[in-house]
User: Which sequence fits this backbone?
């Protein structure tokens, strides 16, 4: 019994296509609670994404560079398997509204069946981001709307490049 403190590790999984200020709010707040937070970018080949997984990882790394206990990578497959691979005891999930809760409750219940040792922590998003989603950002950007209040500047520039490209 050396009295060594066990690191509290959490994952924050998602597609993050693109990462928004709402996502960053959840990640930053989770990083205050856990010793390490892995932002796991889900590779979902069934979903048509604006950015490649590698581009999303790079954008998130840039957006979270100021948070020393956040690491970013990608994964495929079950989220609980990814959590286990990182020795995580928890998953961090953001909630915007009641509709998010219903979906997240189903996912959490299934994850508990798969591994009851991994807890899910829900963080309510800051009210100023309660409307915000990656889909909304892409829709506004598609019509040349101002997204500067929705995503970090490097993400905004990357979106504009993609939309013009």
Assistant:
């Amino acid at each position: 019994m050396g009295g060594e403190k066990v690191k509290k590790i959490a994952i924050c999984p998602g597609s993050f296509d693109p990462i928004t200020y709402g996502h960053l709010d959840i990640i930053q707040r989770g990083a205050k609670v856990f010793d390490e937070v892995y932002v796991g970018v889900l590779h979902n080949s069934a979903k048509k994404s604006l950015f490649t997984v590698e581009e999303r990882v790079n954008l998130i790394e840039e957006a979270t560079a100021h948070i020393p206990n956040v690491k970013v990578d990608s994964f495929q497959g079950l989220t609980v398997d990814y959590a286990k691979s990182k020795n995580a005891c928890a998953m961090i999930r953001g909630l915007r509204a009641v509709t998010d809760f219903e979906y997240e409750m189903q996912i959490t219940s299934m994850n508990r069946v798969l591994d009851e040792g991994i807890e899910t922590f829900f963080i309510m998003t800051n009210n100023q981001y309660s409307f915000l989603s990656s889909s909304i950002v892409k829709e506004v950007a598609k019509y040349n709307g101002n997204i500067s209040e929705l995503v970090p500047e490097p993400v905004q520039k990357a979106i504009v490049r993609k939309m013009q490209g």
User: Anything to note?
Assistant: The chain has a mean pLDDT of 94.
